[in-house]
TrEMBL record, chains A, B:
Protein name, as recorded: Acyl-CoA dehydrogenase
Documented EC number(s): 1.3.99.-
Alphabetical keyword list: FAD, Flavoprotein, Oxidoreductase, Plasmid
Domain Acetyl-CoA dehydrogenase-like C-terminal: 463-585
Organism for this UniProt entry: Phaeobacter piscinae
Length: 590, 590
């Protein structure tokens, strides 16, 4: 079973949900049109079908292996990575002046989806490099950019994020790694970092580690962290990697999934590092990188969901078993003919397309919020930032659900590793954990994005949804039905929001006890909203006689999401508003 | 991290939910009292903590291996199994006249939970043997019982169920395996059976396979299946295993979980088999066995949930990270202090205890329905049979959720295999698949248990819940709150039920499109009902001054279930009643 990039749906989302007219008009993207974007995605799609998708199984079986002080990936990975670099895929969404193709973020999101659907273990390497490029671009000196950006953008070098230590996971204030200033302006970085994705490997000529550490006398907690660039091989003035720096991989983890992605424990022993930006502002810079990474992890969720969906759909159409109820009792059927298998397949599709619409719409707003003029930035930034935790949490949590449905559709075969779908269930499980767990996203949403501006952005989000509902009212009965479901889900959001704003002041524990249900509610609502926008656009295209079957299906998928998924919002409202009392009841001894 | 059997909660369920006074008064159990039951469970608990729980990790890492024509389990399994037999644990819930301890079914359910919580891979062997014993007892000849029951009850021999073939999974009508009658009254059984749990191993002196096959000229489809007993070693008149029968293991599966449980492909080549019962009634006999096995799989779900819960609770109390919101900002906290971690832990507890209450209550009714006098049987059988698919589906689907929450609470460590909790997430995933997928349970519930008697039993189920609500109204404010939540969930059930009864007649595909949401709704309601009964009993005990802390916690757990889980019933109602239109919309090309 292979993988085909869902280019048609991606282009639909780009055309109708990503604010493409404004995005492509940004000065930064002066010469881009959608034909270029489509051509790039199609070529990437072919590359991934042919070269990357076949890596999944071997990567999962063999995994990354520590051999002496080197980390070895299955052989095919090196060849595929070399070709990935040759074709310039790492550069796709990076600026032209550092050697990039300069495509907008929404195209980058689609590319990230394709690559990670083909193989999440492979996709993690470029994903981390993207993050390092972003951080350097925003906070590096001109000299640092000159030296490091071009090889990173080309993919010849790769990047990593070094945050976690054994005692410092979600709580980065506990980081102990040290950086001692040296006479030449560099720093000696020492300490142990864990869970470093692609922290060690032989795919690239160099690895650029971005490391959180403390300078002598820095304040305690997260205000005393600085960010350092620590190359695996020290780089001379003309950019050639030379001496090995003293950062070593001491072990790699044996993991539930993404087994070909090496997760390293790195030991820094007075390794040469270079300060990025100013001292004690490391967490701030890292957050820039982390926000992009969080968004990308959401996209990985869409990716693994799409892959699981393609497998399940194909199996459901091939596997013959039983007679379909309500149809000819003498006729055997492929299992897709059974109403519940149909339900599972269509639920998977609704969740995949909902996640894609949410992430591609958010990509457009993120682009405008970072690259628009002052007015555009001011208008779009709050919404874009509001959407990031939703993309991360909705798409990652739903990926676990979708992968699990994929296993279920395969029945007993789903439990056999050779079938390949159990791997998606294992791979997907990291998504709600890394780059900030779902609970961390919930704190971000409730604390920073809702309470901090006393609900202003949240109310604007709700008003935008109400506008969509109003627009749907002028459409067909199906659109009106979707509007009604969306309205009910939005009412659950509004009621929860008021309760949370009121409660947080006096009883923050009660409010935050509902933070994850609120995140789930809001993410589900946001995805349903984007599918409702999609349905409206699709109906308009249908009326114009464009691809009427595809468009009719977009409408139905939105309706399935409305009937089967949006209904969960009301449960979450109840959990938030009545669930706090039992949750915090002292009779629960724990 | 070890495992401790939750004896206190089990005894609470036995005392208050399992109809213990009637059950223990059954003639079959004349001399049993609860002290014996408790003593047996406590001893089994110690045995499992000491000998079985440590097998999990090694069983998962090494797995079952095919070595030539033998299946080898990790060494420690053989020693543990021998001791299991020596201590007589296989015999716990089997009749005294075949060498059993003769404990009631509810005690058997608790024992199954303990064994499978300690290690599901180990627990599967006795579970299948239990099924073979049941089938033989019900349908075997006296001579067959004489020859085979005692060694099976002792555990010296083990049993298997052979249903599935490559083309015949959920659809057993497609079974092709053949049985040719021989002159001596035996049959020559030929064909390939797949997914045979413990189909080959060296733990026991003999393996008794129960095999579905077709005699020459038998009707097509499921009406032409007969059941055969095929021993691995042929047994002489005095019961001694002798010549090897021609059934061979040709391969074992490489699975997502329960890796130490060998899943065999068995090749029967004119193997000697003995007819059980009458020809062409095989499926009927197998269903008896399967019903018991379905119930037991539900209990396995409670088991793996409890194990995952114990791990997560322990980690959440140990791992220090961050400051708890709303408490002293200078004080670091174990993560249990964070409201969302508390929410996850308590949700896990509510789901575990809900599943245990549902299965132990059902065990009591099952016992009465099989061993009571005619009046008792007539009264209890419909309810007991109604509950079996609920136990299977609720406890197995929730096990996947609970195991996933357990991974989440561990954060990044949860994804590392050595932590041990990823194994529960992998092991649990088979539960909604084997012994009839969730969709098969849903067909059973809606087709056989609801539509067949035009909703009579379903309405009785609802009336029993209404009685519990009325009883709760005389209790504390907490009990009244639980009653209100239960009432809302029951209303969702009643409304769905009316709609399904009406719809099934004219549009069976629409009705069955909602079969799994209906199963989920009903299972959740049933578990919430049992916890509500538990809360009422606990409050009464509190008033009597008995174990007031434990009892207060039982009340709170029921309330958490009501606030956080029962609220899902309304979403399922909406899925059933409005979701059918979009689901069956022909615009959805698939």
């Amino acid at each position: 079973m292979t993988y085909e990039a869902p280019i048609r749906d991606m282009m639909f989302n780009l055309d109708h949900l990503s604010q493409w007219p404004q995005v492509s008009a940004l000065e930064k993207y002066g010469e881009i049109d959608r034909t270029d974007a489509r051509a790039a995605l199609e070529e990437l799609g072919r590359f991934c079908t042919d070269l990357i998708a076949p890596l999944s199984a071997v990567g999962d079986t063999t995994g990354a292996q520590l051999d002496g002080d080197k980390v070895v990936l299955p052989e095919a990975f090196a060849a595929a990575y070399a070709q990935f670099v040759d074709m310039g895929w790492q550069s796709l969404a990076h600026p032209v002046d550092h050697g990039g193709m300069g495509l907008p973020r929404v195209v980058g999101a689609a590319a990230t989806e394709i690559l990670n659907a083909a193989d999440m273990s492979f996709g993690l390497c470029p994903l981390l490099t993207d993050g390092a490029i972003d951080a350097l671009q925003l906070s590096g000196t001109e000299a640092q950019k000159e030296l490091y950006l071009r090889p990173l953008v080309s993919g010849r070098w790769t990047g990593t994020m070094n945050l976690t230590e054994p005692q410092a996971g979600s709580d980065l204030g506990r980081v102990r790694c040290k950086a001692e200033p040296r006479a030449d302006g560099s720093y000696g970085v020492s300490g142990t970092k864990i869970f470093i994705t692609y922290g060690a490997h032989e795919l690239s000529e160099n690895i650029i580690h971005l490391v959180l550490a403390r300078t002598p006398g820095a304040p305690e907690g997260h205000r005393g962290l600085s960010l350092f660039l620590v190359p695996k091989f020290l780089v001379d003035q003309d950019g050639t990697p030379g001496d090995r720096n003293s950062v070593n991989c001491v072990s790699i983890e044996h993991k539930l999934g993404v087994r070909a992605s090496p997760t390293a424990v790195l030991e820094y022993a007075d390794a040469t590092g270079y300060l990025i930006g100013e001292e004690n502002r490391g967490l701030e810079y890292m957050f820039t990188m982390m926000n992009a990474a969080r968004f990308a992890v959401g996209v990985q969720g869409v990716a693994v969901s799409e892959r699981a969906y393609q497998h399940a759909l194909s199996y459901a159409k091939e596997r013959v078993q039983g007679q379909a109820i309500g149809l000819d009792p003498d006729q055997t059927t492929a299992i897709i003919g059974h109403p519940d298998v149909r339900r599972m397949v269509l639920r998977m599709r609704a969740l995949v397309e909902g996640g894609r619409s949410l992430s591609m719409a958010a990509a457009g707003w993120l682009d405008l919020s970072q690259n628009g003029d002052d007015d555009i930035r001011a208008e779009t930034a709050p919404v874009a930032e509001f959407l990031v935790p939703l993309v991360k949490a909705f798409c990652s949590e739903r990926a676990v659900e979708v992968a699990s449905l994929g296993v279920q559709i395969h029945g007993g075969m789903g439990f056999i590793e050779e079938t390949g779908v159990a791997q998606f269930y294992r791979d997907a499980r990291i998504l709600p954990i890394y780059e900030g767990t779902t609970a961390i996203q919930a704190n971000d949403l409730l604390g920073r994005k809702v309470l901090r501006d006393t609900g202003q952005t949240a109310r604007r989000f709700s008003a935008m949804i109400a506008d969509t509902e109003a627009a749907l009212q002028t459409g067909s009965a199906k659109l009106q039905d979707i509007a009604a479901c969306l309205g009910e889900a939005r009412a659950a959001f509004d009621t929860s929001l008021s309760w949370l704003l009121e409660t947080a002041a006096n009883d923050p524990r009660a409010a935050f006890g509902g933070s994850v249900p609120f995140l789930n509610l809001t993410g589900t609502l946001a995805a349903g909203w984007q599918l409702a926008r999609a349905a409206r656009a699709a109906e308009a295209e249908q009326h114009r006689g464009n691809e009427t079957e595809f468009m009719a299906q977009k409408v139905t998928t939105a309706q399935i999401f409305a009937h089967h998924v949006l209904v969960e919002c009301e449960s979450d409202r109840a959990r938030i508003m009545t669930g706090a009392t039992s949750l915090l009841d002292e009779a629960s001894q724990i």
